[in-house]
Structure formats: structure tokens, C-alpha cells
Amino acid sequence: MVYLKNKLINNNLQISKILLIVTIFIFLGILEYSTPNDYVFGYLYSGAILLVNSWFGGMATTSATFVAVFLTMLNVWIPVREVIQASTIASRVIAAMALIVTGFLSQRLRKSQKAIALTQTQLESQAQLVRLREDFASTLTHDLKTPLLGAIETIKAFQQEKFGAVSPTQQKVLATMARSHETSLDLLETLLDVYRNDTEGLKLDLAPVDLSILAETAAATLIELAANRRIHLSLNYGNSDWRRSLWVNGDALQLQRVFSNLLINAINHSRRGDHVEVVLEPQTSYQVVKILDTGAGIQPEQFPHLFERFYQGNSDSYGALRYRGGLSQRQAKGSGLGLYLSRQIIEAHNGIIWAENRVPNGAIFGFKLPVLPFQS
């Protein structure tokens, strides 16, 4: 019943529109044919053509344009009581051309509007799909934390011999399992942070922070990892032989993650015997931090993608770490999240993060943050 009622209403509306268009044509026709033929009212048909295009579409617009041009030109000869002047014919030809252009452009406009509407619909659908993916990934990673935490606690209980004696060999296996689970947990935490930052924005707990302390802490934490891989890790203060403070207004926890991410990135993509160096350079407006390595450097085509989410580059026949452009004896591979998260954090601090190649060999990953005034 409701469907029939709506259909009846739509039919009545269509009829009303048709009657309005016919009324406009009749009114303009009366003006045309009741006045001297050197008075050109044909331009006024443009309004009717636009209405037809808006309400009925292409074929109806073509028909309305043809009728308007026909009536405009017919008025040259009808009524026959007047002498035909060349200027009258020229005026009506110009009016007819204007009507044709109006009809053509109105149809082009209608097609453009349809294309724009279709594009907007597709973009909205894609945005909705992206949101669904983000929600799914966020929910999945959050739910995976619980079993991982449970597994880690269980392994710790075995290591502490709460379920009976554990041999040294078993302790080594348990330690390997614990490290593997903790790495997976770190990855999940990073993934959750990335999705949260993309959807909600990064929330910072700002306070005066000395970057030199964060750098020393990160280096001390990772010194064992570097040593195990035969990589020399050092820290210096640019041209100064003395320890210097680099004060910024920042979130210490988030900036600590940037140091860790960049250092782990350098260590993981260095070869045995390489040198990874943290350089701290105070400047007038910015505090600059650089992580330098002595590896093979970065391929030019990969610079635009280094800080993209999940970017790892392309593997090749050497089994190389292509997202850093160099060969690795370990063939380590990351998640593609560390550099992306670091970019999120630095940009949230109104800073700049970048990568470049060293001369003669190696790579530099650096960032700079605005100096905190009135601090030394």
C-alpha cells in the first residue's frame, strides 16, 4: 500500500513538471508570435531547457532544445505580415546557437554531476571499508594479547620451576620461547598503537625532555643486542667532546620508542663488524638526532616509501634487506611498522624525520625537534 502511494505521488510530481515545462513553452511562444519578429525571446527557452535537463535527463533535453530552436527560427516567417530583414535572421540564428550550446552544456554538466556523485559514493565506500579493516585489525590484535600474555606467564612459571625441575637445556628452550612470545607481543603493541594513532590521533604527555638521556638509555638497553651481532654501538655529541643536554618539549615515553625503533632498525640491517652511531647535535632552533650505520645504504627508489606503514621493500635473489638497500648476513626482516610509528611520533611533536645515504657508504636515519626555550 505504501509502495502504491509513493508511486502515485511520483507520477503526480512528474505530470506537474511536464505541465510546467509545457506552460513555459506556450507562454514564450505567445510572446514570440504576438510581437514583431525582430524581438527575440528565444533566449528565454534556456531556462526551460535547464529545467528539462535537471528533471528528465538527456533525451528530453535534446527534444526540448530542438523544439526551442524550431520555434525561434519559425518566427522569422510566421506571422507573414512583416518583411524579413537580414538582421532578424542573424539575431535568431545567434539565439538558436545559444540554445544549442545551452542544451549541450547542460547535458555535459549532468554527466559530470553523475560522475562526481558516483566517485563520491565509491570514495565513501572505500573509506567505510578502510574503517572496517582498521576496526577488525585493532580488535584482532587486542584479542591476541591475552593468550600471548598467558603463554609468557606460563613459560616464566616453568623457568622458575614451579611445575618441577627444569634442566639447563630445557631452560634454554624456554628462554627462546619467551623471547619469541615477547617479540610477538611487542609487535602487537606497535600495531595497536599504529591503528590507534591513525584513527584517534597521537596523544602526547608533554614535558621538558633531555634527548641525550633518552639516547643513552636506548643505547644501554640495546648494547647487548648489538654485541651479540658483532656490531659496535656508540654515542657522541657532534663536534663536542663533552656530554651535552638537548632539551625539547616532548613525551619521553614516545620519544624513547623512536630512539629504540631507529637503533633496532640500524642494528637489524647492519652486517657483522659494522658500526652504528648515535649523533646528537644541538642547533639554534632544533635539536638534531642522527642514527648512522656503515652498511650498503638505501636504494634511491625506496626513499619515498621508507616511512610508510608495512613497507619492507622487495626481496631479490640475494635474500637482501631491500628496504634498506643493502645485503645482510643475517637476512633479518622487520614488520614495516617501526619507521612508520616513529614518523607518527616525530610529526606529532612538530618535528621532521628523514633518511639519507652516507658518503662513502652507509645510511643515516635522523629527526629534529624544536628546541625548548630557556633550557641549557
TrEMBL record:
SMART domains: HATPase_c (SM00387), HisKA (SM00388). SUPFAM superfamilies: ATPase domain of HSP90 chaperone/DNA topoisomerase II/histidine kinase, Homodimeric domain of signal transducing histidine kinase. One of its GO terms (molecular function) is kinase activity. This is histidine kinase. Keywords: Kinase, Membrane, Phosphoprotein, Transferase, Transmembrane, Transmembrane helix, Two-component regulatory system. Its EC number is 2.7.13.3. It comes from the Bacteria. The keyword Zinc-finger does not apply. It comes from Anabaena lutea FACHB-196. The chain crosses the membrane at residues 12-31, 43-71, 83-105. Residues 139-373 form the Histidine kinase domain. It is an enzyme of class 2 (transferase).
